Amino acid sequence: MELPIHIDRMAAWSLQEQLAGQLAAMMLDGRLPAGARLPSTRALASDLRVSRNVVLAAYDELFAEGYIEGRQGSGTFVVEDLPAPQRARPPRRAGRPRWLEKPAPPPTHMGEQEAAGIDFRLGRPSMEPVASQVWRGLWREIANELPPDAYGPPAGYLELREAVARYVARSRGINCDPASIVITSGSLQAVNLIAQVTLQPGDCVAFEEPGYPTSRAALTMHGARIVPVPVDEDGLDVASLARLEPPSLLVYITPSHQYPTGARMSVARRLALLEWARGADSLIIEDDYDGELRFDAAPLPALASLEHSSPDNRAPGQVAYVGTFSKTLTPALRLGYIIAPPALHERLVEAKRLTDFQTAWPLQRMLTSFINNDRYMQHVRRVRRRYAEKRALLRQAFASLGDRADLQGLEAGLHAYIALAPELSACELEDAARKRGVRVSVIADYYVGAPDRNGILLGYGGLDIADIERGLEVLTGIVRDRG
Ligand SMILES: Cc1ncc(COP(=O)(O)O)c(C=O)c1O
User: Which site in 165, 263, 277, 431 is 20 to 30 Å from 115, CA atoms measured?
Assistant: First the structure.
């Protein structure tokens, strides 16, 4: 029998794999029907000009997988009970497969843009690196230890949770029990876990407008119906939130440094928000992504810290606080945490277990050592000083432009918002800057509805001083030319 087998000696697959694969395909599609006799190994080897061992090995594999059987003295046959050939199966439905009927995740593509020229866009690398000798020292310590030989606790190793608890008490005023912390792979995983354990399809989630597209998309993927709530210079407009009917199940906010406008939520607003959440039985997701990078402004308490009004109330009840090391170390590490209300904690731990069992041991171990030896706080102090220089440049560059380009949100974090006068279109400014090798983000891209602001965003953390100076010269030059 002539079989249409093609052997490619240059292919990455072995000759045996090619032969077994093609024979199996022929059996499944009916070209080699159930009960058919296969050529002898000697004859097939000669037809294909391969060694007999190749055919023997391929036949052995097909035997082992149950495709063929040997009958005493009469040769090798395709087994009788092979499933019906695919030709005889019902035709595939026209159009999209059923498993693609679910809507695709909303596109965001944040942080994956190619670097271009002097790049102030948000989502680009935006921080000062850790000093290389500190970094190497940390990893040398880990390299001297053998990893545990079993899964660790999904919520994270206790030493790290204790270190994080001490750290948030000191830097954000949050007095929590280490047992209420879950270590996550960055704050994005934290948001996903919270959504996973709280949301049912169609549940309403109030979201800052403009806001952080990545978290918004993640919540949407979990079935949230996103309701944009406006933001002003004091952060999320709680009065608008309170008018929502039915009240939203979750509220996602960035109160320390609203993303992207840079507004800091006033204490009065924070208290009003907490009161509303208690009354509405809603959960607040407090994304404190750059809360520790405060500069000249007085630190405002984390929302989660305001919940601890009595000493016996050691864990927040209405706030799921989400922290990250992405802005102080690097987003590439994927390290974050959730401080959750007690009632939610166990569910989050289970969701974490079902997602990836635990955050990788070397990362947890490294971070514990970093925080406990105070090197982390030293690093944060060092980077704050570096950012102070960069912020001074921004302030200086925009000082003389008055209302035409009003610099905002510089008191914290690593990006600033430049509100432009109505006659200066942000898109035109972005376009003119791009032609001169300077990239900026436009605030309109952070809205789901019609934008009510006209301005650009500058992420300055990762750029060096010389690039910032050159970039600002280009930008302010364009504003002046158009004035
Ligand atoms: C609002 C906001 N939240 C969180 C993050 C950090 O996310 P992750 O911790 O997942 O890296 C960012 C990073 O840009 C952000 O802008």
Answer: 263
**Which residues are 458's β-sheet partners?**
416
Q: Rounded CA gap, 368 and 300, in Å?
A: 26
Nearest-CA residue for atom 3 of ligand 1: 289
**Res. 85 pLDDT band, cuts 50 70 90:** low
The set of protein residues with a Cβ atom below 6 angstroms from ligand 1 is: 186-188, 212, 254, 259, 287, 289, 324, 326, 331, 336
Class of domain 15-88: mainly alpha
Is a pLDDT exceeding 70 seen at residue 275? yes
Predicted pLDDT at 310: 42
| Residue 232 three-state SS | strand
Which residue intervals of 99-198 are DSSP H helices?
A: 132-143, 158-172, 186-198
pLDDT 10s digits, 10-64 = 887 888 888 999 999 899 888 899 999 999 999 999 999 999 999 999 999 999 9
Q: What's the CATH architecture for 118-122+378-482?
A: Alpha-Beta Complex (3.90)
Which ligand 1 atom sits closest to the C-alpha of 188?
Answer: 10
pLDDT at 425 (0 to 100): 95
Decide: pTM greater than 0.85: no
Domain chopping of the chain, boundaries: 15-88, 118-122+378-482, 132-373
Residue 202, both tokens: 């169609």
Residue in 479, 475, 481 with CA at minimum distance from that of residue 393: 475
Q: Are 376 and 361 in contact (CB under 8 A)?
A: no
